[in-house]
């Protein structure tokens, strides 16, 4: 897929993977719009990369998503939606039967799953009108094997993985040329994973893998350890479960 000259919307683009993606996509000649909930972070990103267009928006809010669409429409529209935004609610002190646990799960599902469907639906007609358009949904290595300490996060990403496959096939059946990519990252060194001591991939390498996959039209883009982990999961499921859930982990819930 050609990325140069494309206009790309990145959700959660003010920091971490999203901001690094914006940087690398700008470098190869794409036009990039980032969105996020924190205006200060958006301002910092804009000052760092002046070519960015930054729009404050909380995509978990239906009204915000609709307003974002109108603003982008005024700017000429987009060719690619990169659904990068995601949240993980730390489970450490919540307890699996607490109200807080249920509220955290609802929030994860809203941001990680329902907001993606919402934004894709709002922009779908726009994408269909483009010569070459795409949607990128970010799932997780935890959509393959669940984490006991991140069970609801794992569930939200599994839901997104199934939705991504369904959306791709639906668009094929109706004859649409809109491509649907699934990005499956391993553990990435971001603010979200700062307290984890596990092996992590850098955001730079993560984005390089994403761009290589897009340019190669790989519908499922596995980066770093998620490549080999997929084989482990299929042939040695018990080992895969132990890798994700080591009992010696300081995060393991007893």
Automatic annotation (TrEMBL):
One Pfam family hit: adh_short
Keywords of this entry: Oxidoreductase
Keyword Oxidoreductase: yes
GO MF, any single term: oxidoreductase activity
Segments forming a coiled coil: none
Highest rank taxon of the organism: Bacteria
Family: Belongs to the short-chain dehydrogenases/reductases (SDR) family.
Protein name per Swiss-Prot or TrEMBL: SDR family NAD(P)-dependent oxidoreductase
